Amino acid sequence: MLKLLSFVFIICSYHISLSQTTITGKIIDPQDQPVELASIVILNKKDSTVVNYTITDKEGAFKIIENKKGAFLFQASSLGYKTIFKTINLKSGQLDLKAIRLEEDLNTLEAVTISAVIPIQIKKDTVAYNASAFKVHSDENLGSLLGKLPGVEIDSDGNITAQGNEVRRIFVDGKEVFSGDPSIVLKNLSADVISKVEVIDKKSDESELTGIDDGNKEVVINFTLKSSQKNKGFGKIAGGSGLDDKYFINTNYNRFSSKTQLSIIGKFNNINITGSNISSFLENANGISDDSDDEASDNEISPKNLTGFLTTRVAGINIGQEFREKEFLNANYFYNHSNNYGTTFSKRINFATNNNFIQNSDNNFNNTTDNHNLNYNYESKHNKMHTLKVNGGITADNRTNFLDKNVRFTDDSGTLSRINAIELSRKNKNVSGTFNIHYFKRLTKSGRSFVTGINSSVLQKNFINDQHNIITRNVGLSNESQKEQLTFRDETEKNKQLKLYFNFSEPLWTGHQLKILSSASTEINNEDGVQKRITVSDQNTEESFLLNFNNIERSYDTGLRYNFRTSKWFISSGVNFQDLNRIFGTEDVSPIVKNQFYVNPTVIIQYKPKRGAKHRLLFKRFIRSPRSRQITTVVNNLNPYSIRTGNPDLKTEKINQVILSNIVHDFKSSLSFYSRIQFQFIDDAINSNVVINDFVRTHSFINSDQNKLLRTTLSFSKKIKSLGIRYTLKNKNLFRTNKTLINNELNDVITQGYAFNFWFENTNKQKLDLKTGLSFDTNQTSFSLVEDLNRTFQRQDYYTSLDYDISEKFNFNSQLNYIVFTDNKFSSNEKLPLWNAAFSYAFSDKKNQLLKLVLIDLLNQNVDIYRHSTVNYFEENTTPSLGRYVILSYTYRLGNNRSS
């Protein structure tokens, strides 16, 4: 079979090579010098749509391999020169266009500009893509457009990477929308209103003001609207319904001018959609979870997994106003209501030296959330000597949770020993606010400047818990007993943070700079409340105690940093002196006072040999003091089987971190390479201390000698021009060690993870967009305490997606995943085929009316699975979910105009 496949591949490759045309040539300027990064495009003569494209190398040379035959339009262009067009006839073999001379264009603007048929333009720190050169549907959002751009990727969590760099801010026409939050902008603005997309290697605000590179660049994305969409309203209204009363309504309206931005968003549905994508059917946590998993109450569904059935209502508005050039205010408000209900079946394997047991539970939950979120951002850069930035926000969050939980405890022999029936009602009211102000000032001497500012935040959480427990011991035995408990807990947590900072920069001589960094910060945490517990018996007993804990942390930091830069090198070395003062305890006991002084060095070495290549080494030492929940003396025993407390004797963690990253993105060869190695070792690491006694798990914290973490990431992507495909390979590895204490015995935990993802996709997506690949990841977690409970987890995902334009108005879309995962700690090893599909038809040439049939989970798997591990238990949660459903929807686009 392997020989047959190899033979077929060779024959196919041979026939493909025979039918190809290789187009070569060289672009030169009026002085016969080569023009690098000129855009070379092959166009259809009929409609000027893009067939293929490339850019020139340092010698001005280009090469395009094309399978199509016939007469086409050749285009060569570069900023500062007039665009050249000529008709070419493609036949099998070689077509040498020789040297092509461009003429200077004296009317070219300095800014990056793109004509309607130039896919990519490159200038200085900006890569600009012509949006019309990449296929998107009239109902697709900006996230779909970004996913089609070479060098730009969006992962399953919505994180954006552009040329190997993480993107955290997004602009529209150079201004922030919805505070620059990518998750909101990408899901709610339509792709077909965009004329170009710019990926900008943006300097820091201080560098922009002084003109001196301080090494603190960030990659941002700017979307430019089509001229036909400016100064008028555009958006869409979409709605659909299906079987079993499933429905959704999405609407957005936008109006952008040179001075004003307005966006209004509304989403209403009961199909488990929080943004614009169907939630994952299968989630797995590999290896040991972080502290946040273990800190969640055992009486709550994991916050990392959307399960069951969800109804969502979202409304938002964004307003932006430019008062004058480079002075802009952006404000937005969001309201989010959700109701999430269902039943989760949970299996937890608890282990210790001689106290292993299993607990199975059925969890009926019903959670309602009402969230209000207001954010603002003011920026003034109109004065060349100073910059002012003010931003912040207010959030109010009301939550009501109800949980009906039945837990069955089984001992080592498999005997049912105990039953715990729980009814929990919880009301949470959270209010938070932030206010930040930053002032950048350039002084008279070139390169001399200072930065000062304030960062502040306030958070208050109110919890009211009303819980009813019925505990049955020694099930089925003659000495079976039952205890009934009623617990009420009213708790308030308050957090206040304030940081003042002042940084001064002094140029020494060309390429050399000295920076003085200083800051003072205060964080205050208060926990107050009362807990009352009544045990129902022949003689009712009542116990109550006050919850009271205060934690104040003050840090005074002074640092010196020396920066050296050339056209290719940036080197920074410095040291930070930190005076850390901590005072904590309860009001009725003398507070615990700890004063510490630390010296923390930082070194950065960065080398950029050419555009698109960057190599960076970072070493940093920093201090992380214990969080309030880790040192609190307040006991949380709301759940009598999971008791949590702190350790006031904890030391601060000393973290040493080394990060080596390499980025190479070559548009000429269509190659992208990215690697990142992170090594971290933590002295006095804070780890778990678990005691298990009579099915009760008491969790606290200890300092251990040292934790180690090694995390590597590798990504390689290359275009095979002769086949018209691009392949991408991604690899992630993890090695982590930590020490925990379980029943006073030391437990060495080692986690090793390996992930591999490989896929192919076609490069010409004008009519067909096809992607197919596989991902494989495995994780091994070993415990020195109980070796026979070492965990090995594997997950395989074979996937393919197809987007095909059957005609100009009729489209078919399909996604198919076949997921196989095994786990030696759970018998329910799953093989899950997941299939979604959609048919859409546009009614008019402008495609402003769309009828769509959406088919979700056609194979009706209707299950969510979430697995995770902690230092002494494994857990699997299985939740019935929506399953198969069909929705017929209608979309009407407002102000749709497909011209640029």
From TrEMBL:
<protein>
    <submittedName>
        <fullName>Outer membrane beta-barrel protein</fullName>
    </submittedName>
</protein>
<dbReference type="InterPro" id="IPR008969">
    <property type="entry name" value="CarboxyPept-like_regulatory"/>
</dbReference>
<dbReference type="Pfam" id="PF14905">
    <property type="entry name" value="OMP_b-brl_3"/>
</dbReference>
<dbReference type="InterPro" id="IPR041700">
    <property type="entry name" value="OMP_b-brl_3"/>
</dbReference>
<feature type="domain" description="Outer membrane protein beta-barrel">
    <location>
        <begin position="461"/>
        <end position="892"/>
    </location>
</feature>
<dbReference type="Pfam" id="PF13715">
    <property type="entry name" value="CarbopepD_reg_2"/>
</dbReference>
